[in-house]
Write a structure and sequence with these properties.
Layout: H1 9-39, H2 43-93
Helix pairs in contact: 1-2
């Protein structure tokens, strides 16, 4: 028995947008850490914040690569599904009905 595929295009689009927000946040994280360090008012604490940001940067870069890869996959799914959905719609509306089944070989 075949399964069903149900894809919410709204949720797919929301996922693409959420992944972009994550990527944007990762890209601005160093600037945010630098800004935070500068506002501490304490040289040693500022140094610790900058050290943490530097160490976290390596892990964040690896995570950003993975998030970007997932985003590309989701975008590909969105594009492919939209294309297939459009083609199915066209095939059903060109003649006003579903395409006729192909006839089998004639016996004679």
């Amino acid at each position: 028995m075949g399964g069903r595929i149900k894809i919410s295009m709204e949720q797919l689009l929301q996922l693409e947008q959420d992944l972009q927000l994550i990527l944007d946040e990762f890209e601005s994280a160093n600037d945010n850490a630098e800004s935070t360090a500068d506002t501490t008012g304490h040289d040693k604490l500022a140094g610790r914040v900058k050290d943490f940001a530097g160490n976290w940067s390596k892990k964040r870069d690896a995570m950003a690569e993975n998030v970007a890869a997932i985003q590309q996959i989701i975008t590909g799914i969105d594009q492919a599904w939209t294309e297939v959905d459009g083609q199915l719609y066209e095939s059903l509306t060109d003649t006003g009905q579903a395409p006729a089944a192909k006839a089998g070989p004639r016996r004679g």
